[in-house]
Amino acid sequence: MMLRTVAVIAVLVVSGSWAGGVTAADRLSCRSASMVECRAAGCERQDMHSDLTVDSGRKSIRYCAGADCFDARVALVKAEDGSVSFAFDARSEPGRRGGRVDRLVTLHPGGKTATIGAFLADGTVLFSPMECRAAELDQ
């Protein structure tokens, strides 16, 4: 149960190029529109912040939701239109009935928009469009 007002994704590619479109210097910060998730018991207000760090050399990501972080392997697909999608392993997230959540992120051509999808163990599917911008590297 949660009201998801903001999901933030930061994509950091550590080395080389990945899928012919992302280079070592690329870093995108994406923010979703508001999204509501309710269960039979009702809705609960919560701010959910998600961060992704993508390591192109190891084909892995580190995903953080709130204070909990998970490492995951990445499956990557580049479409003919230039978009790049990657999927996360299922991970258990505290507070979720059923626990498992699979996620799919699509970075659309031009790097200005993205879509994040969440596939929950109970069959619920959530998609959230995102606006992206170039972000400066943290010092």
Explain what you see.
- This protein has 139 residues and is an all-beta fold.
- The protein has one domain.
- Helix content is 0%, strand content 53%.
- The chain is built from no helices and 14 strands.
- The strands form three sheets. Strands 2, 3, 9, 10, 11, 12, 13 and 14 form an eight-stranded antiparallel sheet that branches. The chain has a three-stranded mixed sheet with strand order 4-1-5, with no helix packed on it. A three-stranded antiparallel sheet has the order 6-7-8, with no helix packed on it.
- It is globular, with a radius of gyration of 15 Å.
- Mean pLDDT is 60; it is low at 1-25.
Total number of beta strands: 14
Broad structural category: mainly beta
Q: Pick out the low-confidence regions.
A: 1-25
- Amount of beta strand: over 45%
| Tally of contiguous helical segments | 0
Order of helices and strands: EEEEEEEEEEEEEE
Summarize the amount of helix as a percent range.
under 10%
Largest sheet: 8 strands, antiparallel
Question: How many structural units, i.e. domains?
Answer: 1
Calculate Rg over CA atoms.
15 Å
Mean pLDDT: 60
What characteristic shape results from the CA principal axes? Answer: globular
**What is the terminal separation in angstroms?**
36 Å
